[in-house]
Amino acid sequence: MTSLWERYGTITQVHGLQIEDTTTSMNEPFLKGQVQPPAYRNVNFAYAFAVNVIGVVLTTVFYGPAIFQGNSSNEEVDDDTSDDSSGGSFLVVMAFAFLAAILTNIGLLSVMARYSHAIVQASLFTAPLLLFGVALCFLFIDTDAGAALCLSALLFFLISCMLYFWYQRFVPFAASTLKTAMSVICYNQGLYFVLLGGIMLSFMATIVYVIALAGIFATAEQKGRVVCKDLYDNPDGIYQDDEMCMTNPPNGLIMFLLLLSAFWTQEVIQNVVRCTCAGTVGDWWFSGLGDPSWCSHEISHSFHRAMTHSFGSICFGSLLVAILQTLEEMAKSARRNRRGALLACVLECLLYVMRRWLEYFNSWAFCYVGLYGYDYLTAGKNVIQLFQNQGWSTLRRID
Question: In this model, does residue 306 exceed pLDDT 80?
Fold first, then answer.
């Protein structure tokens, strides 16, 4: 497959967009992928994810009814139904917020397509403006602390102003990238359904996991509570004198697996959407295709590949991030419970950095998966080769 620059030259018009060749300053050639023949890749991880889904469904069916059962182990159950009404109100508020978010995002897409340059400029200008406003607020506080906070805000204001002028040279590139992304959606309007479908599926998955988690705790609550000091040693004063604990708390392994499953499911949904968008953008960009209909061949083909041949690769990369997320949450929980707080804080920081780097790496790897159909490891090798060829400074500019 020939690259865009080989096909059109250094300055080109693609779908009405003027693109400038930025590869001439690179010492190494751009690493071009090859479309892979249809084949199921990393299928073991797809099977593992299917087992995960079945396990979550069974857990929800088994433990979920405990939420609605009375707790006979408690001394007395309050007949007030305010909790039920508040719970219903919460769901109504969540539903309206979800609908408002969808409508707002759809409206913003057209605004970003028309005023991409102004939006990029405004995003850079917002931080200095807010910091200057904060400095003015602290200026009117007639105390030593107010003066110190005002000086600190002014210092950060000056730093943000320097960054604002430093990043001015990247504004045209960022604006053209944003405009291109909006053009992709305009030429492939079916991506609306893909994005909104991913959000809705993620929302429903969250509800299922909340029901499963609440059911597990409700089952444990039914077995009663006692004073924590009667169950556990309290050398560090972790528990208060009147603090109550479950006599039979949820199994730690089950909670770990449920949390891992929740993170894994959310990552898989997100990356299926990402691979579908990457495949659609590849067809639009390299082949000059674009179907404004709501169900174009490019979108259906990309979605089909993400859900079949590349689904195992998506599950593989998503599982790695989910493991780090789960370990990070465990370290965060240990820090909050003051159990080895210093070590837990260090581990939480390390896991956070590792997770963020892996998420950044996956954002590139899944582009190769969505564009060419590579398995996850091969896509990862191509990303590493891309990093080596293009240099980290170039990648920071693109990101």
Answer: yes
Dump pLDDT digits (tens) for 145-164.
777 888 888 888 898 888 88
- Listed in sequence order, the DSSP H helices in 188-251 are 191-221, 228-231
* Angle in degrees, 0-180, between the axes of helices 252-287 and 43-63, rounded to the nearest 10: 130
Least Cα distance to 257 among 212, 311, 304 occurs for: 212
Q: Given its phi and psi angles, is residue 334 left (phi above 0), alpha (psi -120 to 50 degrees) or beta?
A: alpha
Torsion of CA 282, 285, 289, 294, to 10 degrees: 60
State how far the Cα of 99 lies from the Cα of 254, in Å rounded to an integer. 34
218 and 63 in contact (C-beta within 8 Å)? yes
24-46 mean pLDDT: 73
391 vs 22: CA distance, rounded Å: 14
| Euclidean distance between CA atoms 14 and 289, whole angstroms | 11
Closest CA to 260 of 52, 74, 57: 52
- Max CA pair span of the chain: 79
DSSP string, 350-383: HHHHHHHHHHHHHHHHHHHHHHH---HHHHHHHH
User: Cα–Cα distance between 282 and 155 in angstroms, integer?
Assistant: 44
For 262, the token pair is 């929740």
* Residue written as token pair 């060829």: 389
Closest residue by Cα to residue 3 from 25, 28, 30, 24: 30
* Chain centroid, CA 47 distance in Å: 23
Phi-psi region of 16 (alpha: psi -120 to 50; beta: other; left: phi over 0): left
